[in-house]
Each structure stands twice: as structure tokens, then as C-alpha cells.
Design a protein that fits this description.
By secondary structure, the protein is an alpha/beta fold. It folds into two domains: 152 residues, SPOUT methyltransferase, trefoil knot domain (Alpha/beta knot), CATH 3.40.1280.10; 62 residues, tRNA(m1g37)methyltransferase, domain 2 (Trp Operon Repressor, Chain A, Orthogonal Bundle), CATH 1.10.1270.20. It has six helices and nine strands. The chain has a five-stranded parallel beta sheet with strand order 2-1-6-5-7, sandwiched between helices. Strands 3-4 form a two-stranded antiparallel ribbon. The model has no long low-confidence stretch (mean pLDDT 96). It binds S-adenosyl-L-homocysteine. The site of S-adenosyl-L-homocysteine (SAH) has 18 residues, from strand 5.
Amino acid sequence: MSFSASIITLFPELFPGPLGASVLGRGMADGLWSLEAIQLRDIATDRHRTVDDTPSGGGAGMVLKPDILARAIDTVSPAGDARPRILMSPRGKPLTQSRARELALGPGAVIVCGRFEGVDQRVIDGRGLEEISIGDYVLAGGEVAAMVLLEAVVRLIPGVLGGADSHADESFENGLLEYPQYTRPQNFEGAEIPPVLTSGDHGKIARWRAEQSLALTAKRRPDLLPPQKS
Ligand code: SAH
């Protein structure tokens, strides 16, 4: 059984977009994962295919209607579907590498992309939607956020990126930022590759990388380091 993503959106034509390129696209062609994008408007039954309405209590913008959205969720994810149901939302828990890894090892995800002012709270509660944010800023819709989430997840699906080791050293995988990377030429605009990296001494290289990772994390993201005992 491979990872299956169902996206509920007003803009299905945006998918797979970047998710169809490079190794992710190859993984899809190889059947390691699949994606379907469902047009929310197709679920609406009235003549105008209405998906939104004005906010109760007043205020700007429109809110996605709970009845239409709930029907869309029930259509793509009937009872017994083990996939988590996710709502892309700036109010959600920030996306982390560890949540991405959990999702990558699971059966897939049903992802709701909000638009306008967001979605009726009762469908979030009633369908148990897990709200996930990609950062502390507001986008116009959940589609790009869903792509960010899926790109982080799909590259971790076993087989998609090849080499089982290729993630081990990456930023966040061990709670630290990655060490600096270099490749040829040996001299670039007067700057040399650090000699340790061309020394052939693997123990020394590993130690240098660990030090660089720690120093970079302390400088840029001290919040990632375990609290210092004083
Ligand atoms: N009024 C809402 C923002 C709505 S933005 C609020 O203040 O919380 C419209 C849609 O874009 C949202 O429903 C959500 O699906 C998506 N979106 C916007 N910013 C996002 C973010 N940082 N992370 C994930 N999804 C986001």
C-alpha cells in the first residue's frame, strides 16, 4: 500500500504543480505515492455551486460552508479511512520535520485547503481536522501550504529519495541545522574548500561537521538546542 494524498480545494488545477517535478514526480510515476485533487465546488448542489457564505457575527470576507466541506471530506474519506485529516491553517500547530516523518510512514493524508477567511469551526470539530501551519504569516489560500507539507512528507517516503542515509545529516533530523556543504572547484573566487573535507580522514570530517552544526545552530537557532543547565 502506498501513500495516498487527497486534496480538497477550489483550485485543483494547481496540483501536482511542483510535486510532479524531479524525484517526487518520479516517485509518483513509480507508484510510491499518489495524489488526487478534488474540486470543492463539484460537491455543491445548488445552481450557483455555492461553497461560501458571509461570516456569522459580521466582518469582512467569506467563510467556507460546513455542509459542503463535510460532504467533500466524507466523499473522499469514508468511514474506515485511516488517513489523518488535515486543515492547512495559520492557527495550526507549526509543521515540523518529525510530523512530516510520521506522515511519510503512514497511509497518506486528506488535506483541506482553506480560502477566504477560512472554514466554519463546526467542520473542524466535527470531522476532527488537525490544523497545521507552515509558518507565522498569512497566505491567500491553503494550496501552497499543502504543497509545502506534501513536499516535506513525500521526499521522506521510503524509496522516493533513494539512499536510506540521505536524510540522516539533514537540518532538523538530529535537532540541529546542517553543516556547510562544498563541492569542486577547489578554489572558488579565492575561497578554498576547508582542508579537513579533502583530508580523507572520515573521523575528523565527522567531528568537524558536528562542530559546525552545533555552532551554526547556537548562532542562528538557539531555540533548537536543549535548555542549558546552570
Ligand atoms: N482569516 C484566517 C486566515 C485565512 S487565509 C486567519 O486569520 O487565521 C486563507 C486560507 O489560507 C486559510 O484557511 C488556510 O487554509 C490558508 N493559510 C493561510 N496562511 C497559512 C499558513 N501560514 N499555514 C497554512 N495555511 C495557511
